[in-house]
Write a structure and sequence with these properties.
heterotrimer, A alpha/beta (about 350), B alpha/beta (about 250), C alpha/beta (about 300), A: about 350 residues, alpha/beta, abc type-2 transporter like fold, C: about 300 residues, 2 domains, six-stranded mixed beta sheet
Chain lengths: ~350, ~250, ~300
């Protein structure tokens, strides 16, 4: 009852306030090749904007790539040499904006924001001059030059499908046995309870593997989303996430007594957070602190960022080791809890 | 005399595809009668009962319940009958009082009527002190008695009881039958199914269904005479053993 | 050695406020090879008792042993040795008859062939339908399949929780005949039922009501313990007869019993006295006779005291 009445309220609040496509305080890095008065002024204006937060001053072009791969920044601004001079003498110069387009929406928004800040700056310095200054912006969309939506939703769908198949289906089939009374007979047999649970989980593990394969094949050959990183790594991470989902399913099944309850818990506790808090639909960076904290316990958040890194950005384990470790920890935690909670008796 | 027949069925049939669940059954039930409706699992009892309650359309044949036709007036039938089964009867998470209020409301009874009737039933069942307790906290026997009271709450002409006493202890079972007798005394017609053969003896007349047909219909005494049996149990076994089709 | 020993078992459910006592200090023994009936209405505690004995529940207090093994400590041993058919047991609906049986054989590390002789009498009746899905079987056939599955590993003790509930009189008779045959094979059988008339088919019965054992004895023994004379009366107006006799001071109890009312009197009156009473109320075709009590009479009398 509480859930039914409370859900809409919580959802409205989350959707209305917390989940916006508007991007605030996006991390930005600057490669200032000029380091003169004008470039510093532009940088400080960008930093002052509520949309951006200066993360780092870079010193070379190669650093940009590294920062993007690490996922530390969303946007990079490159200011050419003799920035101030060019403005003064040629009345014309050019800056480069590089965006992480693995999330095309965010990339689009950010480059628009940045362009308008630059435009503002341009107006301000032009103000008392007769001849207008022009600062051209050159855009570069990293990883996803065509700004394809598929780059974003393929990893999201993978997370969702695996969660749905593994968690919900495992939970439901085990609870069904309880409902049918077959679990009672299973328990009163020499079979080890862990074996029963394992036997239930294995088919879904296999099913998930097939799902992963078909999603990847489709995305590569139909949607033309490349797998830039190591396929082996991607599969390994997917299996890891599958195991996390399975453990969660087992955990739910040990608590739920009816199929409806199992379904309900799976939906409320896993599915909705996955949609809302994994970063798939709404960027996590812009959420209020409480939600950002909560998002950390959503396994899909970590998996989503892993898949994006490996598939789209082509990074290796050295970047995503932290996420991998977290998922691994989650799996161990949920699995131990599930096995511990699985009763060798009825009560 | 026609008024005294509260249920009439004439060649009532229900088919599910090739399967004839109820095969041309004909019978009449008199007002105030306790009519036992017996049969093995799968003989077609439930299907027949559903048709009479207006829950299921017959394939062919005629039937009327409380003077209403089962084809055209099934809504009216539902208003004029009570129904209770072993499985579904009361809402477990409502209190005793709330259940009565609820059923009274469903049948469009006035608030005053509901209030008076509730007080009457609580006293009759000695349940006053449990009135505000949840139904699920009551012992099974009490639940069944309460469910019966609720089934006749709106004072219907006929009440259908589907295995009302399954699993109930022998003392409560008899108390339950006492309630049935009293209800029948006030003119309510009772249509009851049961697996307890001793309960068949309590009925005024008993019909026994075998393979979708009514194979026997008479008073318990006459049935025992016809089938040269000492008890209804024997009568039932003699008839039901002839069944060809398997249950359910 | 006894096949089952139960000593002072207590089991309660629920939290502080709403404690339900399912089993209240129950003790009994079942000898090897016996067909033991636990007879009582729903809510008497039969299922709780069976679950404790099959190691599915742990009692709050008391001890129990099955086949010489403690139900808590040696639960693994017991799980190897017992067969169990829970009340709401349904098989795997979407597996066929044969597949179900094979499945249970595998679970118990055995094969159908190994113990076929034990189940063949029962299984033969459903073998013509062995390709049919269990979900499509009739009630009686499901029951036979379930019994076959519970027997497939040749258990030493078989627990059947309300196998005949909701089953019609014919199938019930057949089921008890199967149990009799199993007993001849030396399997100890504990069976629970709400039907009093099934008591007579057991070697020994425990009558149980609201978590307490009312009596344990052979069916004959229980009837012997019923020491008061019991009368059966009938007339053409049974309801009036019941109400009128209930009002009599000398009548201790009267209740409907099949086509008769059974009457217990407070003093030892002769038949003449009963006839006299009934005549006073001007009943037609009155019949009065002395009868032997059956288990149901005993249960009623034990319940009321």
């Amino acid at each position: 009852m509480f859930i039914l009445l409370g859900m809409p309220i919580v959802q409205i609040i989350i959707f209305g306030f917390a989940l916006t496509n508007e991007v605030k305080n996006a991390k930005i890095a600057v490669l200032d090749n000029s380091k003169d008065e004008a470039s510093l002024s532009l940088i400080s204006q960008i930093d002052a904007s509520r949309y951006f937060e200066l993360e780092k001053n870079l010193h070379s072009y190669t650093e940009i790539e590294t920062e993007f791969r690490r996922g530390k920044i969303k946007l990079a601004l490159v200011i050419p040499q003799h920035f101030a001079e060019d403005i003064q003498h040629l009345h014309k110069t050019q800056v480069q904006l590089i965006a992480d387009a693995s999330d095309p929406n965010v990339a689009n928004t950010l480059t628009n924001y940045a362009a308008s800040v630059i435009m503002d700056y341009q107006k301000r310095i032009t103000n008392d001059k007769k001849l207008p200054y022009t600062i051209d912006t050159e855009l570069r969309m990293l990883y996803n030059p065509q700004l394809k939506g598929a780059y974003n939703f393929v990893p999201g769908v993978m997370a969702m499908v695996l969660l749905l198949v593994c968690t919900m289906m495992t939970a439901i089939t085990i609870v069904k046995e309880k409902e049918m009374g077959t679990m009672e007979v299973m328990l009163v047999s020499p079979m080890k309870p862990q074996m029963i649970v394992l036997a239930k989980a294995v088919p879904y593990l296999v099913l998930s593997a097939v799902n992963i394969a078909s999603i990847l094949l489709l995305s590569v050959f139909v949607l033309e989303v490349p797998i830039n990183g190591s396929l082996v790594l991607l599969v390994f991470e997917s299996i890891l996430f599958t195991l996390v989902s399975l453990s969660l399913g087992l955990l739910i099944s040990s608590g739920a007594e009816s199929q409806q309850t199992a379904m309900f818990i799976s939906l409320i506790a896993l599915f909705l957070p996955t949609i809302m808090l994994s970063g798939f639909m709404f960027p996590i960076e812009n959420m209020p602190l409480p939600l950002r904290v909560i998002s950390n316990i959503v396994p899909a958040k970590w998996y989503y960022s892993i898949v994006k890194s490996v598939m789209i950005k082509g990074t290796g384990l050295y970047v995503i080791w932290k996420e991998t470790l977290i998922l691994f920890g989650m799996m161990i935690f949920f699995l131990t809890l599930a096995i511990k909670k699985f009763k060798i008796r009825l009560a | 005399m026609a008024n005294d027949k509260v249920i009439t069925a004439d060649k009532l049939t229900k088919r599910f595809g090739d399967f004839v669940a109820v095969d041309r059954i004909s019978f009449e039930v008199n007002k105030g009668e306790i009519f036992g409706f017996l049969g093995a699992n799968g003989a077609g009892k439930t299907t027949a009962m559903r048709m009479l309650c207006g829950l299921s359309m017959p394939t062919s044949g005629e039937a009327s319940v409380a003077g209403f036709d089962v084809y055209k007036e099934n809504e009216k039938i539902k208003k004029n009958i009570g129904y209770m089964s072993q499985k579904f009867s009361l809402y477990d998470d409502l209190t005793v009082k709330e259940n009565m209020r609820f059923y009274g409301g469903i049948y469009g009874m006035s608030n005053k009527f509901i209030k008076e009737k509730t007080a009457f039933i609580l006293e009759y069942l000695h349940l006053q002190s449990e009135a505000d307790k949840l139904v699920k906290s009551l012992p099974l026997g009490w639940k069944q008695k309460l469910a019966f009271s609720v089934a006749i709450f709106h004072e219907p002409g006929i009440v259908f009881l589907d295995e009302p006493t399954g699993g109930v202890d022998p003392v409560t079972r008899r108390e339950f039958w006492n309630m049935i007798y009293n209800a029948s005394d006030t003119g309510i017609t009772i249509f009851v199914t049961t697996h307890y053969m001793d309960e068949a003896e309590y009925c005024n007349r008993v019909s026994i269904m075998v393979d979708g047909r009514i194979d026997a219909l008479d008073t318990p005494a006459a049935l025992k005479k016809t089938y040269e049996a000492a008890s209804m149990d024997e009568v039932f076994l003699k008839l039901a053993r002839k069944a060809k089709r398997s249950a359910d | 050695m006894s096949a089952v020993i139960v000593e002072n078992i207590i089991k309660t459910y629920g939290a502080k406020k709403n404690v339900v006592t399912a089993l209240n200090d129950i003790s009994f023994e079942v000898k090897k090879g016996e067909l033991f009936g636990i007879i009582g209405p729903d809510g008497a505690g039969k299922t709780s008792l069976f679950r404790i004995l099959t190691t599915l529940l742990i009692a709050d207090k008391g001890k129990a042993a099955v086949d010489g093994f403690d139900v808590v400590k040696d639960y693994k041993e017991i799980r190897k040795r017992v067969g169990y058919m829970p009340g709401k047991f349904s098989l795997y609906q979407d597996l066929s008859v044969e597949e179900n049986l094979e499945f249970f054989a595998t679970i118990f590390n055995t094969s159908i062939e190994q113990n076929y002789d034990l189940i063949k009498d029962i299984y033969r009746q459903i073998e013509p339908f062995k390709k049919r899905k269990a979900g499509k079987l009739s009630g009686g056939m499901k029951q036979k399949l379930a019994l076959s599955c519970a027997l497939i590993h040749r258990p030493s003790v078989l627990f059947l929780d309300e196998p005949t509930t909701g089953v019609d009189a014919v199938s019930r008779k057949e089921f008890w005949e199967m149990l009799k045959k199993l007993k001849e094979q030396g399997i100890t059988i504990l069976v629970s039922t709400p039907y009093m008339d099934e008591a007579g088919l057991c070697d020994e019965v425990a009558l149980i009501q609201t978590g307490k054992i009312l009596s344990i004895n052979t069916p004959q023994g229980i009837i012997k313990d019923f020491k008061k004379p019991l009368w059966a009366v009938k007339s053409s107006d049974m309801l009036r007869l019941l109400n009128e006799m209930q009002a009599l001071d000398d009548v201790e109890d009267i209740y409907p019993f099949g086509e008769y009312h059974h009457v217990l009197l407070k003093k030892e009156y002769g038949r003449e006295q009963l006839v006299q009473w009934i005549r006073n109320y001007s009943h037609e075709d009155a019949v009065v006779q002395k009868v032997e009590p059956d288990i149901e009479d005993c249960f009623i009398s034990l319940m009321k005291n």
